[in-house]
Design brief:
By secondary structure, the protein is mainly alpha-helical. It is built from eleven helices and no strands. It is globular and about 45 Å long.
Length: 177
């Protein structure tokens, strides 16, 4: 098991949420600790030295759990960018000492969402769910251009603590639940 930054602080939060929201699944605490997006969401407020990292960590983890359990309420809507969907997380920029950490984390989350849209294109089309990558108004080459833009941001911003949690290479694989 890799050693993650702030593990002594973050792991109890992940365990507490797993036990609270999934009391009948004894494997969930470990699943949540192994989920790199969950770990990123709970860790980056601490790395960014926000004023209330526990509050942000709990709020972001709650969003992830709700998005997993109630996807119908978290689907992308027409005209909404990934950044728009994640905008509540972006508010942390105003409340931390290291805004570059938030920028890198947000770019990683955007990339994860973009890759998820890419992987779900056919399934979303079959189920008649909106996916911006299936939208005829989405410019040709958008996925590659957006992916490259996000990878550029991620690689430009140095933050070894986040790199130990997740990288664009990890995101290229299927990593969510």
């Amino acid at each position: 098991m890799p050693s993650y930054p702030f593990a002594k602080t973050v792991d109890p939060i992940l365990e507490q949420f797993a036990k609270r929201y999934y009391p009948d699944d004894p494997a969930m605490p470990q699943k949540l600790k192994d989920n790199r997006i969950a770990r990123l969401l709970v860790t980056f407020p601490f790395i960014a030295e926000s004023r209330a990292p526990q509050r942000y960590a709990a709020a972001y983890l709650g969003l992830l759990i709700n998005a997993r359990d109630f996807p119908e309420h978290f689907r992308t809507v027409r005209g909404e960018s990934v950044r728009d969907r994640l905008s509540t997380m972006g508010r942390l920029f105003d409340y931390c000492k290291k805004p570059y950490v938030v920028e890198k984390a947000m770019a990683l989350l955007e990339l994860a969402s973009l890759v998820d849209h890419w992987n779900d294109r056919k399934k979303d089309q079959q189920k008649k769910r909106y996916n911006p990558l299936n939208d005829p108004s989405t410019p040709r080459g958008f996925y590659n251009a957006e992916r490259d833009r996000l990878v550029d941001i991620i690689t430009r911003i140095r933050c070894p603590e986040i790199d130990r949690i997740i990288t664009p290479v990890v995101i290229g694989n299927r990593f969510l639940w």
